[in-house]
Write a structure and sequence with these properties.
This protein has about 525 residues and is an alpha+beta fold. Helices cover about 25% and strands about 30% of the residues. It contains 14 helices and 25 strands. The strands form six sheets. Strands 17, 18, 20, 21, 23, 24 and 25 form a seven-stranded mixed sheet that branches. Strands 4-1-8-7 form a four-stranded antiparallel sheet, covered by helices on one side. It has a four-stranded antiparallel sheet with strand order 3-2-5-6.
């Protein structure tokens, strides 16, 4: 997605990195195997919901977790977080099957403001002091606008042998330098057992994870000997940058001495503890929706509003439109939108009395477009008193008309988005609608459906296990999730104050559009931004 400076919504995507020090050892014959679980307090609620989990780090009391948490930071909101630390004891995914080591509470704003915070790990058990439970370090980096990936592969030669009865069991840890000078783990390789000349498997990670998209940022690579019953032993390390140290083809400039500073200080004859060689380096450019827009691709929006009992949901409809207006204008700089109504017919004051039609244009058939969201809302209000609702509403006619419009006008320079505001669960319940969405897999379009009523709206668009959907995945075509996105309006309302979190609602409405758009452009039609 675009940067914070570009978007008209006060949020940005950030990445959290987690480390812990001096945690409680709960294992008798070895050390703890820690894992961290992040919980986020649900908006307009006191309930914490699980956001994600790190990997399990085996036999360590000072873990640096490689897994990062990407999360949206909203400037105007207090976003409460909870981090729980567990000693992983079994392969089970059920947290109660593992030993709970403690928890940390904080809010996202203080992490972003300070770049990094250190908090005592609190426990409900008898070990309550920092000395008993350790501390957690939470740091943050802006995600930025790049999705580029880097693939690397390393090998080593003549490593120091750290084991008495066998050879070392080496692995690498790679750390990036943060903007505040601290370091954060970016990757941990697999362990190669019993080898002084290991070759590790290739790995691919986001460039932002390795160096925050800054090719001049310092990178530290450390080589360790894994031990099952004791702390891992340090073999040696080196520091480089992507620009200076990583070359696509293996050369002498891709060979680095692994230095153990402690051994170097003890002997003037010390040279190195092994040689590390980069044998593969490839940066895969991943384009963003911003790249395409700046290269001239046009995104066209059709807004369709459910007029069935619309007076009951007028406030919700207008709130959604007002919330998304900034992002609509960002993605479509012309601010011209096709605007339609459905679920009702116009009476004698209107122009269309056919209940089987595919909806009606808010400004009449001679003028299907509105200039800006303000005109959409004004035209919507004008038509409310001129319509008569009819029975069960289906979106199929609207979707068919939209797909036909996209088919007739679509090419590599134009993409179409249908934003539908619907009021009732039964609108969403037809398999026919799901089938028609699948048929649009090869068209340049996305559909965003906002459920504005009080119904549960249990997402039948993505719930159905369609054979066609599975076949689409297997054939490389887009499936329902690559085309449609469902949002429930009620999820963003505080039911006590009746206040809607407009920024969160706007971000959620457009959350999947960038990826859907880029996937279509790069994978379905195999094109790239014209001027890049």
């Amino acid at each position: 997605m675009a940067t914070m400076d570009d978007l008209p919504v006060p949020f940005k995507e950030v990445e959290l990195s987690i480390s812990a020090r001096h945690i409680r050892d709960r294992d008798f014959f070895s050390m703890s195997d820690p894992m961290c679980v992040l919980y986020v307090k649900k908006p307009c609620s006191d309930k914490f919901i699980e956001f994600g989990r790190t990997e399990v780090v085996r036999d360590v009391l000072d873990p640096d977790f490689v897994k990062k948490f990407k999360i949206d930071y909203f400037y105007k909101e207090k976003q409460e977080l909870k981090f729980e630390l567990y000693d992983n004891d079994t392969p089970s995914e059920v947290l109660s099957h593992h030993d709970r080591l403690g928890e940390v509470f904080c809010n996202l704003e203080e992490i972003v403001t300070n770049k990094s915070i250190t908090r005592e790990i609190r426990s409900n058990r008898r070990y309550r002091t920092t000395r008993d439970n350790g501390v957690m370090i939470i740091s943050v980096e802006d995600v930025g606008n790049s999705n580029d990936l880097i693939t690397l592969q390393f090998k080593a030669a003549k490593l120091d042998n750290k084991d008495r009865f066998s050879k070392s069991d080496p692995y690498l840890t790679i750390y990036r330098t943060n903007s505040d000078g601290s370091i954060t783990i970016a990757h941990r390789t697999e362990t190669i057992m019993d080898s002084l000349n290991p070759t590790w498997r290739p790995f691919t990670i986001p460039l932002r994870t390795l160096c925050a998209n800054d090719l001049q940022r310092q990178i530290y690579i450390y080589c360790w000997d894994w031990d099952s019953n004791a702390r891992d032993e340090y073999i040696g390390g080196c520091e480089i940058t992507v620009n200076s140290g990583f070359r696509k083809d293996p050369t002498s400039s891709n060979v680095f001495k692994l230095i153990n500073q402690s051994k170097k200080e003890k002997s003037s004859k010390y040279d190195n503890s092994g040689l590390l060689s980069l044998i593969e380096c490839n940066i895969d450019r991943k384009y963003s929706i911003v790249d395409f827009i700046r290269s001239g691709t046009q995104i066209h929006f059709t807004v369709a509003i459910d007029f069935n009992k619309a007076s009951m949901y007028q406030s919700a409809h207008e709130t959604v439109l007002a919330s998304v207006s900034g992002l609509l204008d960002y993605y479509n700089r012309t601010k011209i939108y096709r605007a339609m109504g459905f679920g009702a017919v116009l009476d004698e004051k209107g122009e269309d009395k056919d209940p089987d039609n595919a909806g009606f244009f808010l400004n009449g058939p001679s003028n299907p477009c509105c200039k800006g969201v303000e005109e959409i809302i004004e035209s919507y209000r004008n038509q409310l008193s001129k319509t008569t609702a009819f029975g069960q509403v289906e979106l199929v006619p609207i979707i068919k008309q939209f797909e036909s419009f996209a088919k007739n006008h679509g090419d590599d320079d134009n993409y179409f988005v249908l934003l539908m505001l619907t009021n009732h669960q039964d609108t969403m319940a037809t398999e026919k609608m799901q089938d028609i969405i699948i048929e649009a897999a090869e068209l340049p379009l996305s559909m965003i459906i906002v459920g504005c009523g009080n119904d549960e709206f249990d997402k039948p668009v993505v719930k159905k296990g369609l054979k066609e959907d599975i076949a689409a995945c297997e054939s490389g075509k887009r499936n329902i999730n690559d085309i449609a996105h469902f949002v429930r309006f009620e999820d963003f309302m505080d039911h006590e104050t009746k206040v809607v979190s407009k920024d969160r609602l706007a971000v959620e409405v457009f959350k999947k559009l960038p990826d859907q758009f880029v996937y279509y452009m790069t994978d379905v039609v195999d094109t790239k931004p014209r001027y890049l």
